[in-house]
What we know:
- The chain has helices at residues 14-25, 51-58, 61-67, 103-116, 168-174, 234-244, 247-255, 259-264, 309-328, 334-361, 369-374, 378-384, 386-395, 397-410, 424-433, 441-452, and strands at 4-10, 30-34, 70-71, 74-79, 82-87, 99-100, 120-123, 125-133, 136-144, 151-161, 177-179, 185-193, 206-211, 214-220, 225-233, 269-270, 275-278, 282-284, 288-289, 292-294, 300-301, 457-460.
- The protein is α+β, with helices and mostly antiparallel strands.
- Strands 4, 5, 12, 13, 14, 15, 16, 17 and 22 form a 9-stranded mixed sheet that branches. Strands 1, 2, 7, 8, 9, 10, 19 and 20 form an 8-stranded mixed sheet that branches. It has a 3-stranded antiparallel sheet with strand order 11-18-21.
Amino acid sequence: MRTATQILVIGGGPAGSTAAGLLAKAGHQVTLLEREKFPRYHIGESILPSCRPIFEQLGVWDKLERHGFQPKGGAYFFWGPEEWEVRFNDLGSDGTNAWQVVRAEFDQLLLDHAEELGVEVVQGVSVRELEFEDGRPVAAHWAGTKEPSVTGRIGFDYLVDASGRAGVMSTKYLRNRKWHTVFRNVAAWSYWKGAKQLDRGPAGAIAVCSVPDGWFWAIPLHDGTMSVGLVTGKDDFNRRRTELGGIEEVYQAAMAQCPAVLELLSDAEQVAGMKVEQDYSYVAEQFTGPGYLISGDAACFLDPLLSTGVHLATYSGMLAAAAISSVVSGEVGEQEAWEFYGTVYRQAYERLLVLVSVFYESYRGKDHHFYNAQRLSEADRDELDLQAAFNRIVTGVADLDDAKDVYRRIRGHLGGTESGDPNPLANLNKVHERKQAPMTPENAVAGLYLAFHPRLMLRRADVPIIGRR
Length: 469
Ligand code: FAD
C-alpha cells in the first residue's frame, strides 16, 4: 500500500467508488480505503435512473446490466387518497434505466470497477485519525479493522470523505452534522421469499404504501427475495415496541393495516431477521474545506421516501471528481471549484428535502400520529430552512451562473460527451424552468424525476380512485 497518494478517498460505497473511479479515469493517482471486506451488507436497494449517465461515464453500466439485477420500471405509490405511479420508460427510452439491487453485489461491482480503472483499493482498513496542517488534512492514520495492530500513515494532496453515515470529517472533526428532528423516523425491515409481483404499475417497480402510522417499501430483488420495510416515527415506534413486545411485533402490526403489502406477501415466507436504522436524516453545515470534499451520506442524508440516497451518493461523487480534477489541472482555483461543488450538491439535496417534505404533507393517514410527527411546523420550516431552500431551487439563477462558468471549464476533464454528459447545470435549469408549477406532491415528484432524467413521465395510475377525501 502507498504511503503517499495524490487523492485519498475514504469509503468504498457508491459515493467513494464513483469519485475514485472517475478521478482515476481522468488520469489521477487515487487510493481508496474501505474498512469492510466486500461484499458487505447495505440497505438502499432501489436505484433512480439519474445514476445511469454517471455509470455510463464510469464505463460500468454494461457490467451492471449483465449482472442480472431486477430492472426497475418505476415506482408505484399507494399514497394519499389515490394510487399513482412514476414510469421510467414511457417516453420511449431504450430498455432499463434503473434497477432494484442487492447492495452487497452492486457495491462490490462498483468498487471492483474503480480498481480496474486504476484506483488503489485497500479493504479491511479503517481510517482512525486525520492529520492537519493549518486546517488542511494532509495525511490519514489507518488500522486494520480486524487486526488493529496493523497500522500505517498515508499522505495526500486532496481528500474525498465518502465514509457514509460514519462521517469521519463531519462527526469527528467538524462536528457540524445537523439532525432533522422532524424526520426522526425509524426503519425496520426484513426479506421475504415467494412474494407476489405487484399486479399494477411498471414492471419491477418499488411499491410505496402508506399506513396509518407510517409507510412501507416493497422492493423485488433478483435473488428471489423481496425487501419489505416499515418507516415510522421514532417516538411512536418506541411506544409500540414496549406495548407489543418487540420490533417484529411492531412491523407485523403495521403490516396488518396495509392491504397492498399483505397481498404481496400472502404466500411468502420471511427469510431474514429484522434490521433497524433510526435517526438517519441529517446534513453537514458545510460540504467542503481546505483540501477536502465530503460526498454521499458522509455529507447528508434524507429520509428514504423517494429512494434518493444512491443518487445523491453517485451525483456528489461525480461532482467531487469534476471539482478535484479541475483544480489538479490548474484550470480553476480550489475555492472556485469547491464553491461549485458545494452549491450544486447542496441544491440537489435541498430540492429533495423540499420534495420529501411536500410528500409527507400529503400523507394519507392525516388523523394519525405519524402525519403530525412529520408535519412541518413553522419552527421546523425555519430549522430546515425550507423556504430558503425552495427559493434557492426555483430562483437559483445566480448560483447557476456561478456554477456554469466553472462547469464549462471542468467538463472536459471527465471526458463527457455533449449527449451523455450528466450535466448538473442542465438538471438545475430544468427545475428552474418548472418554477411556475404549483408544488403539489405529483409535481414535486415529477420535478424530481424530470430534473434528473428528461425522458421520464409521471402519470396517474389507471386504477379506480379510492377514498378521496
Ligand atoms: P455507504 O454506502 O454507507 O458507504 C460508506 C463506506 O465507508 C462504507 O462501506 C463504510 O464501511 C466505509 N467507511 C466508513 N467509515 C470508514 C473509515 N473510518 N475508514 C474506511 N472506511 C470507512 N438509497 C437509495 O438510493 N434507495 C433506497 O431505496 C434507499 N433505501 C434506504 C433505506 C433506509 C432505511 C436507509 C437508512 C437508507 C436508504 N438509502 C436508500 C440510502 C442509501 O443506503 C445511502 O444513501 C447510500 O448507501 C450512500 O452511499 P455512500 O457511498 O455515501 O455511503
